Structure formats: structure tokens, C-alpha cells
Amino acid sequence: MFTQDDEKQIAGHGLCLETVERQMENFRKGFPYLKVVRAASPGDGVLQLDKAEAELARKRYEQAEGVSVVKFVPASGAATRMFKELFAFVNEDKRGKGIDTLLENIDKFAFWDELKALLPEGADDKTVVRHIVSEGLGYGLCPKGLVTFHAYPDGNRKAVEEHLVEGAAYAAHDGVSRIHFTVSPEHINGFKSLLEAKVPVYEKRFGIRYDISFSVQKPSTDTIAVNPDNTPFRQDDGSLLFRPAGHGALIENLNEIDADVIFIKNIDNVTTDAQRGDTVRYKKVLAGTLLALQDEAFEYLRALEVEGAELEPVADFITNKLCVKLPENYTTALLRSILDRPIRVCGMVRNEGEPGGGPFWVANPDGTESLQIAESSQISPDDMHLMTSATHFNPVDLVCGVKNSKGGKFDLRDYVDPSTGFISSKSSGGRELRAQELPGLWNGAMAKWNTVFVDVPVSTFSPVKVVQDLLRPQHQ
């Protein structure tokens, strides 16, 4: 199937032939659906903290000593989906309600000041839109992080700047806020240029120092593309085509972060200073919850090192607090293996129709049931009714503990479920192809972590999926 030239190309991509052949087998066989049992809900997998419990968790995080913190922000890729409707208007004359909404409210967008300075006199509607996505602002080729999101009297802010503000509010330790951005190679200079100008401003404002780092998605995580008949897709020059394998590839980047507490939040999920109170409070609540669970898990691990240790209290903790349902005949080895895992505490908001993965109980091969964030593509048609019954969904609001009880780092690649990838239909050069995505970062890439879901207010979730979302109250 593969020639010597193919093998050289595979090796040059940082891949081995065995990995590519396994990817080919995945195309032929497909990926199995998750064995979902039911949707998690309040009292059954979604923890609802009362005011006193939330306050206790917040204080625990604020008062924790010797805890290193990093804010991890996936920020790769251009904002293509955000401006898809605008491109359709400019290139294909497709004018829908979204374009009308945009133009009727154009002066309410924070980027209006920049845009109007670039527009020719008497610009018609199409010229205005074109100056947003191509000539002019060029947002159609920008990552979301470099789009101006919010207006302020002292200067408007791009999305990446709001993460600096958040970092100062809940992810600073000993006067330093460490923030890590995953960025596409073609955009990294744009990020660096903006941050070089803006970091000193926010350091002065908040009286802290920022430690900013970047990484790019590794080529070795790319996957081979195939034709509809599952033969290797070849480009015009006969070479193989490899494609980025989705955000699940970022588990490699996350694995290189050394910190006790890692906050994960998407680049577009930010709000204004006036609306940020709940976001800051509940990030601290989630982190405090994580630290408490982690301490207790480590304590029980140490207890299990003693021969003849009582198992029932450990099993109760695992069942009631770590949300892992044990088989009837569990062993000490199983208890130990469950306690000795990375842990994530995930904010879950009430389902109000927004897109996003849902919280589910899933049956595992070892006889346990545990919590997973599942996308609709992972659920069989027969189980799809469970998706509609979910009361909550995942806004990508995670706090992660990646250290073990001895203080060393887990190798996060050991806790990925490789069977939870998926196949999608794409095209290249006008030709149809099949693409393969790795298990999603907060889905299958964390499938073997301990997972706890906490109910958080919907006010902590303010994503910008399309440009018109910037007209929502959270962004005005």
C-alpha cells in the first residue's frame, strides 16, 4: 500500500508506519460508540454546591500554599466558522438574517472603530463585510484570539487580552500568572506581537508578572486522509495527505505543562469586566473542589499501602465523591488504580440549547461506571434519546490535577481511550476525502481520568461561535 517514498514522508512527519497502518484500520472498521448508561444529572453525577460549600471551596483554593497554577488556552486555527456567513455573502451573494443583524448593529461591535477607519467613503454593504473578513481587518484569516471582542473607555480588547485579565483574577500565584496558549504556527507571531505590547500594560494594572508560553500542535499527531473507498488520498504530486487531528492532539501539549492546577478554557469563552464576577468565583470554586478531592484521594492511597487496610471507606469515597461506580466484587488493586489517576473537575451549565458535549455515565471494561463528556457523534442512534435528556452540557470549563501522590507528573497519554476517535467527511482541492480525528481533548483524551461534574451558573459561559454572538449582553 505504501511506497518507499511514502515511508520517507511518514517518517518525516514524525510518524511511524505502524501508527499510519493503525489509522488506516480505523477507517476500515470505524470507531465503536460509547457505552453510555444514562445522562448525568443533579444528584446523579452532577454536584450542586450550596452557597456555604462553594465559599469553602473558593477559600481553600485562595489559601492553598505551594500550589503552582497554569491557565491553558487552546487558541489554534483561524476563525473560519465565526465568519462563515460573511464569506458566503461576499463570495456567493448569499444574504441571510445574520448579515442583516450584523449591518444593522455594526456600530455596536467593538471592532467598529478600527473598521470604519479602513472603509472607503460611501462603502456599500458588501464592501463593509468584505473589509471585516478580507481586505481591511482581515478577520477571516485571523485566529479568534486576535479579534477585537469588547469595548472599554480606556481601549478596546481582543479576546487574548481578556485571558490576561482572567489570569490575573484567578490564575496568579506568588505574583505570577502563567498562561499557555496553543497556537497555529502561522499565527504565533501575531500573538507574540500583540502580547509584547499589551502584557506590560496589564502587569502594571494588576501588579503582577505574566509568564506567557506557546506551543503548536505537533505534526506527529496528524492523521492520514483517505479516499471514500479507504485507499490513501494522494495529492496532485502523488504524495500522501496528512491533516491535523482535532483538539484531541493537544493532550500532547497539555502533557508538557508542569503545574499542580491547570485551568482549561477556550479562547472565545470570555466576557467583560462588568460580567466577570461569576466566572472568577466559580473558577476558584472548581479549583478548591479539585484540591480537596485530590488530598483525600492521596490520603486513601497511602492508607492502602498498609496491609489489611479497611476498604469500605475507600470504596465510599470513590463511589460518592470521585463518581466511579464499583462492581460488586471490587479488589484493593482496582481501588488503588482508580485513586492513582489524573483528576479533572468540570463546570457544567444548564442545557439552554447551546451546542456542546453532555455529561454521561459510561460503562467501562473493568466493570466500573464513570463520568464522561460525550459528543453526539460518540453516541449510537439507539442511545440518542439519552442526549436529549441531558440537563447540562459542557462549556469546556475544566480544572485539572495532573500530579500523583508522590508529586510526580502523570503521563497523560496513558489515560487516553484511543477507541473514541471519529471519522468525518472533508475535501481537498475539490475532491472528497475521509478524515480521522483523535479522541477529543475533553472527551476520549481524558476518558481514563477521574471526572467530577459541578453545576455552575450559565453566566460563566459566553462563547463566540459566530460574529453576531458579540452582540449578546455578555459582550456589550
Describe this structure in words.
- With 476 residues, the protein is α/β, with parallel strands linked by helices.
- The protein has helices at 4-12, 17-29, 51-63, 84-92, 97-104, 112-116, 125-133, 159-170, 188-206, 251-254, 277-304, 312-320, 332-339, 384-388; strands at residues 36-39, 41-42, 45-47, 69-74, 148-150, 157-158, 172-173, 176-182, 209-215, 223-224, 242-243, 261-265, 343-350, 358-363, 369-374, 392-393, 397-401, 422-428, 431-437, 450-455.
- Strands 2, 3, 4, 7, 8, 9, 12, 13, 16, 17 and 20 form an 11-stranded mixed beta sheet that branches. It has a 3-stranded antiparallel beta sheet with strand order 1-14-15, with no helix packed on it. A two-stranded antiparallel sheet has the order 5-6.
- α4 (84-92) crosses α7.
- The chain is globular, with a radius of gyration of 23 Å.
- The termini are far apart.
Question: What tags apply to this protein structure?
Answer:
476 residues; 11-stranded mixed β-sheet; alpha/beta
What would you say about this model in short?
The protein has 476 residues and is an alpha/beta fold.
